[in-house]
Amino acid sequence: MALANAARSNSAQMFGHPRGLTYLFTTEMWERFAYYGMRAILILYLVNFLLLHPVAESVIGLAATKHLFEYLTGPLNTQQFSSMIYGTYTAFVYLTPFFGGMIADNWVGQRYSVIIGGLLMAIAEFVLMVPSLFVVGLLLLILGNGFFKPNISTQVGNLYREGDSRIDRAYSIFYVGINVGAFLSPIICGSLLGEPYGYHWGFCAAGIGMILGLVIYVNALRTLPPDRIARLRSKTDEKRPLTGEDWKAVFALVLLCIPVTFFWATYEQQGNTMNLWAQSFTDRRLIPGLLDWEIPVTLFQAFNPAMIVLFTPLVVWFWGRQAKKNTEPTTVTKMALGLFMLAVSYAIMALAAYITPAGHTTSWLWLFAFYAVITMGELYLSPIGLALVARVAPAQILSAMMGLWFITSFTGNLLQGYIGTYFTTLDKPHFFLLCTVLGAGAGVVTWIFNFPLKPILEKRGPTAQPELAEPQADPHMEPRPAG
Ligand code: GLN
């Protein structure tokens, strides 16, 4: 009965998509507002406040964390220690989604998981307002994101029937939601609150954002799909075992995780070393000599999400045009292209660093160009990666597979923190060239992977379907076949 009700209310459409998509969009927008608001000020909070004497001595667990890192890497100065904290936090935040996905698939379901995760993350942001509880706050965020992120992401795909051509578009729209939140938060949590009034107000605003997201989600539950676990059990008593085809799809996704790791390892420098580049090596005057207003450091964190929002319609339109001519690349080829674009973005930075004499700053327009190119690369890799998982992962382990996709951000961010320590040991052109080479190498590997993976992935559903399908009368009456 509950399933039928959910299905009926979900049949309402908005702009050709189920109404639930709007609510998932808004919920994720606020959750990402919280995540990126906190992330925008994290590295600055560390180097400008928390790691300085005497505050550092009062932070519970900080000395032990430093010992652990130094055991692994050798002595660390403040910038290097902050890079390791930033990298480790942003890594573990993406490890837990794998377990959060498994827990949802097997026991809790997606809906409760999202609520538990949202609550934990809201509490965490308020805990972060107390400097001595910094490590506790980070741990709560890591736990909360594990419950939240994979499960809200699978719910997007669950709004549609298997093979529905709107799934790719749904994820692109969802990704815009992510980035509206990511765009607003550095401005509100960083430039308007954190930088002028104290970082703790930035954390506070992030917590309020997460609460707003939760309230929207809970109110929208009736428009959301029944949990996949419930949908499977409504038709069968037991979960069906994975077939040979399922295992091949799992293998293909696991293989893709390797190069995608290198995307995140370099891409995620944005919040770390690129933030420091904006702070210390960039001439941030808007129009030097004419309009000397300085762009706040944290505002650069808003460039990428703003560009995602602006570029998404263009990219989706472009793919649609390619599809009509039958020239749209496969998902895996798009990912390779995304990696090549990322390599180009760091080549731009290498050039900027190369032509800037030591001790000088360089125009912020270099950063602008960097963000434009890396953002195009992201659109060619990240939202379509989510859609790929939603389309090809076996239903029984869907959330866990979504979690696996996020594990690329775990491994990527671990590497990112480590790569970030070279920001002080290498000269800047070589640092950026290192990122260029890593991105380009991973691009070549992904491009090669396309040949064996194409037949496996395409069997599981078309990879390119630009046209909107007719709205389904009732997307949930048919459960997605498990095998
Ligand atoms: N920017 C996207 C998000 O926040 C992707 C992040 C990631 O997977 N590393 O959801």
Structure description:
The chain is mainly alpha-helical and 483 residues long. The chain is 72% helix and 3% strand. The protein has a single domain (2-233, 244-459), classed as Growth Hormone, Chain: A, CATH 1.20.1250.20. A two-stranded antiparallel ribbon has the order 1-2. It has a two-stranded parallel ribbon with strand order 3-6. α14 (331-355) runs antiparallel to α19. The radius of gyration is 22 Å and the shape is globular. The model is unreliable at 1-10 and 462-483 (pLDDT under 50). The site of glutamine has 6 residues, from α17.
Question: Any idea what the radius of gyration is?
Answer: 22 Å
- How much of the polypeptide forms β-strand, as a percent range? under 5%
Q: What's the number of domains?
A: 1
Helix content: over 70%
Low-confidence stretches: 1-10, 462-483
The average pLDDT value, as a whole number, equals 87
- The global form is globular
Along the chain, the helix and strand elements come as HEEHHHHHHHHHHHEEEHHEHHHHH
Write a brief structural summary:
With 483 residues, this protein is mainly alpha-helical. The protein is built from 19 helices and 6 strands.
Record keyword descriptors for this entry.
single chain; about 475 residues; mainly alpha; Growth Hormone, Chain: A; two-stranded parallel sheet; about 5% strand; disordered C terminus; binds glutamine
List the helices and strands and how they pair.
Elements: H1 2-10, E1 13-14, E2 17-18, H2 19-50, H3 62-73, H4 78-92, H5 96-108, H6 110-127, H7 134-158, H8 166-197, H9 199-219, H10 228-235, H11 244-267, H12 273-280, E3 282-283, E4 285-287, E5 291-294, H13 303-324, H14 331-355, E6 362-363, H15 364-379, H16 382-392, H17 398-420, H18 422-425, H19 428-459
Parallel strand pairs: 3-6
Antiparallel strand pairs: 1-2, 4-5
